[in-house]
Amino acid sequence: MRIFKFGGASVKDADGVKNVARVLRSQGLNNVLVVISAMGKMTNAFEEIINAYFYQQENSEDNLKEAISFVEDFHHEIITDLFEENHEIFNKVDFLFAQLSGFMIQNKQNNSKNYNYVYDQIVGFGELLSTHIVSAYLSEIDIKNQWIDVRECIKTDANFRDAKINWELTSQNITQKINKNISENTIYITQGFLGSTSLKTASDIVEGNQNFTATTTLGREGSDYTAGVFAYCLNAQSVTIWKDVAGVLNADPRVFSKTTLLHEISYTEAIEMAFYGASVIHPKTIQPLEQKNIPLFVRSFEDISNKGTCVGKGTKINPEIPCFIVKKNQILVSISAKDFSFMVESNISHVFEKLDEYQLKVNLIQNSAISFSVCIEDKYNTFDSFYQDLKSTFIIKVYKDVTLYTIRHFDEKALQKIREKGTAIIRQINTETAQLVIQ
Question: Which of 65, 192, 215, 234 has the smallest C-beta neighbourhood within 10 Å, fewest atoms?
Answer without folding.
Answer: 65
